[in-house]
Each structure stands twice: as C-alpha cells, then as structure tokens.
Specification:
With about 90 residues, this protein is an alpha+beta fold. The chain has helices at about 5-20, 30-40, 65-70, 85-90; strands at about 50-55, 75-80. Strand 1 (about 50-55), helix 3 (about 65-70) and strand 2 (about 75-80) form a beta-alpha-beta unit.
C-alpha cells in the first residue's frame, strides 16, 4: 500500500481513537453539517418503488447507514467498504 494511503488511514484512525464513534471520529467538524452531507449524498437516488444498491466507499463507521435508518429511508440496500482495519472491526 502506498505511503499516501497509509497517511490517510493513520489520520482517520487517530481521529477514531481520540473521538470514538462520532462525527469528530471521522474528522467531520459538526453533526449538523455531517447530516446535511448525508442528505445531499442521498439526493442522487431517484424516488422509486424498486430497491437501489448503495456502496459507501470509505464508510468509516457507517454513519451514512445510521442516517438512512434514523430517517426511515426505504428501499436502500446499503453496503459499506473501508480500507482501515480499525474502522472495519470497530463494532
């Protein structure tokens, strides 16, 4: 794995170690902006009666999935993927 990837992984793992399972743990400054980000990300999904598959690449601790659940957003088959072993094994 390249040094650039290792720097990114180390940065986010340090945030997780310091702040835990929170918006700060994924280096997002505040929860309001994080939720706005999730809303905007999900706005690309067109309303439909057919389930859609969503791959959250770089999911961290899957806060987007939590947002989907908390807001009762139906018909989204969520899969999270992250390069960091600490984030993958967090739960």
């Amino acid at each position: 794995m390249s040094q650039q990837y290792m720097k990114i992984i180390s940065h986010y793992e340090a945030c997780l170690a310091q702040y835990g399972d929170s918006h700060r743990g994924v280096d997002w400054p505040n929860v309001t902006d994080a939720n706005l980000r999730y809303q905007i990300m999900l706005d690309v999904i067109r309303p439909s009666n057919t389930p859609v598959s969503l791959l959250d690449f770089g999911c961290g601790v899957a806060h987007l999935f939590s947002y989907i659940q908390q807001n009762n957003i139906a018909l989204v088959n969520y899969t999270g993927l992250d390069i960091s072993p600490r984030f993958i094994h967090f739960f």
